[in-house]
Amino acid sequence: MKNWQDTLVQPTASLEAVIEKLDLSAQQILLVTDEDKKLLGTVTDGDVRRALLKRLDLSTPVVQIMNMQPKVATADWSKARLLSFMEQQQLLQLPVVDADQRVTGLETLHGLLQKPRQDNPVFLMAGGFGKRLHPLTKTCPKPLLKVGDKPILELILESFVHSGFHRFYISTHYMPEKIREHFGDGSRWGVSITYIHEETPLGTAGALGLLPYDEINLPLFMMNGDLLTTLNHLNLLAFHEEQGGSATVCVREYEYQIPYGVIESEDNRATGIKEKPVHKFNINAGIYLLSPELVKRVPFNTKMDMPDLLQEEIQSEKGVSTYALKDYWLDIGRIDDFNQAQSDVDQLIEE
């Protein structure tokens, strides 16, 4: 917010002065600071209404009605983290302070929503053969199979574009010319697309080693090109930044029921019986956020799978977080999944 200084008010200001300044600033909030701009509290339209309902005199000092424990952000918070925090706390404004609690700015929900541009790179994996979807993929790469009236990969791309992302990389191998022909340079969506071609399949992580490292200076989204999901990308980005570490992997809870009664025993004696028990696991959802440093550690043109890469990070204690995916998610790997996607897509687009 360019005019955040207009919201500053001294603790000696009266309720009457506060009302006048709220009206002039038109921001629905004032920041109460001392002479060094250290934040002491905040006053909103709601605080003023409550004061008037209590019939407080207009000469009442602002310190008697202000919120003395306001939520704050710091200048290093990304837009994604700001939006996620304000949504969780149901805030319309959020003061920005330095390490000494001095005010350096004011973010507003309206202002953040007016500038939906995210500079994080997005890497979409579209090089697979899709053998389990034969015969559909004999003449068409799996990412170009249509779900509803659009290819799977286009739905994924547009979901990121809707969230403000504009820097895309797409890995190709199988029928790369068809993918390039459909998406071009990305100008149709107002974004840039760079293609990363695998001459030979490099596994689920190896293509990272083909990226132009000098362009990867922010956490990178990496996502399989055969997923249908309503994931909130900004919430995931905010989570990754809050957790720190080199990687965040999205996980999905998967239940498996053993179709038999299970006998527990010890020394040939039964100790318990469980009828068709259900086991729950967190499975890899094929969506990741990777730090630039991790991306740059992937060797050039070397076959590598994502579980191996993440295991190295875990063993090195560089920090790998898990993000529980509660949103709709479907891995379109088999014909049954593809048919399910056709049934789901219209409702998902409406949402």
Automatic annotation (TrEMBL):
Keyword Magnesium appears in the UniProt entry: no
For this protein, the record's SUPFAM superfamilies field holds: Nucleotide-diphospho-sugar transferases (SSF53448)
Q: Cite the CBS domain residue spans from the record.
A: 1-58, 66-122
Pfam families attached to this UniProt entry: CBS, NTP_transferase
Determine if Transport is one of this entry's keywords.
no
What the entry lists under InterPro entries is as follows: CBS_dom (IPR000644), CBS_dom_sf (IPR046342), Mannose-1P_guanyltransferase (IPR050486), NTP_transferase_dom (IPR005835), Nucleotide-diphossugar_trans (IPR029044)
Key words of the record: CBS domain
> Which named protein is this?
Nucleotidyltransferase family protein
